[in-house]
Specification:
GO terms for molecular function: hydrolase activity; metal ion binding. By secondary structure, the protein is an alpha/beta fold. Helices cover about 25% and strands about 30% of the residues.
Length: about 210
């Protein structure tokens, strides 16, 4: 499985494209808002000959959903989220203008992600892990064969997701990290929603929030 990342919008949010040798591809957390950001993503898709088959959100804070409607319209794919984050998504249309995102267009999901099920594209299967705490319906996607996790805003390099937003809970987040992520092999690479990638082993050793 190949992981391609883009950093978009004023929140420096990481958008991920996952693709394999079949050229099928899924988009995770499209934060592309302005025309240049949208073109950066679509140009890559075209140059690589990728076929977008799914659009998913790890969670639905504004910086992770700004490009949902654009991706859905451009590639004719429906949005998939965890049902517990539907209120988080619906709230974005209310507060997005106060952050300067006056052109945000709401897109609601057509189906929901569930822990224990698999998210499939091409020859690839991703495990869905339910990891609330930063957001009520946060999920991460784990590809065991390549030891890679698309982690959203749960675990960062030497840090963790904030819990002071509506629906956030510090104790719940720590529990999610310890029971869902820290049970994975130390060599697993974590691709977070902001900042550089890290590994499970590195965060077990050095993350000051988790000692």
């Amino acid at each position: 499985m190949n992981v391609t990342s883009f950093t978009f919008n004023p929140f420096s949010e990481n958008t991920y494209l996952l693709h394999d040798d079949t050229k099928e591809c899924i988009v995770i957390d499209p934060g592309c808002y302005d025309k240049n950001e949208q073109e950066n993503l679509t140009n890559f898709v075209a140059e690589q000959g990728l076929k977008i088959t799914k659009l998913v959100n790890t969670h639905c804070h504004v910086d992770h959903v700004l490009g949902n409607k654009f991706i859905s319209d451009k590639y004719q794919v429906d949005l998939i989220i965890h049902e517990a984050d539907l209120p988080t998504l619906k709230a974005v249309a209310v507060y997005a203008p106060s952050y300067g995102f006056t052109r945000y267009e709401e897109l609601l999901p057509s189906k929901y992600l569930k822990e224990g099920e698999l998210l499939r594209f091409g020859n690839t299967e991703l495990q869905i892990l339910f990891t609330p705490g930063h957001a009520p319906g946060h999920v991460v996607f784990y590809h065991a064969p390549s030891e890679q996790v698309i982690g959203g805003d749960v675990l960062f390099h030497r840090s963790i997701g904030r819990t002071d937003l509506p629906g956030g809970n510090y104790a719940t987040l720590i529990q999610s990290i310890k029971t869902k992520l820290f049970t994975l092999p130390a060599s697993v690479t974590v691709y977070p929603g902001h900042g550089p990638s890290t590994t499970i082993g590195e965060e077990k050793k050095f993350n000051p929030f988790l000692r």
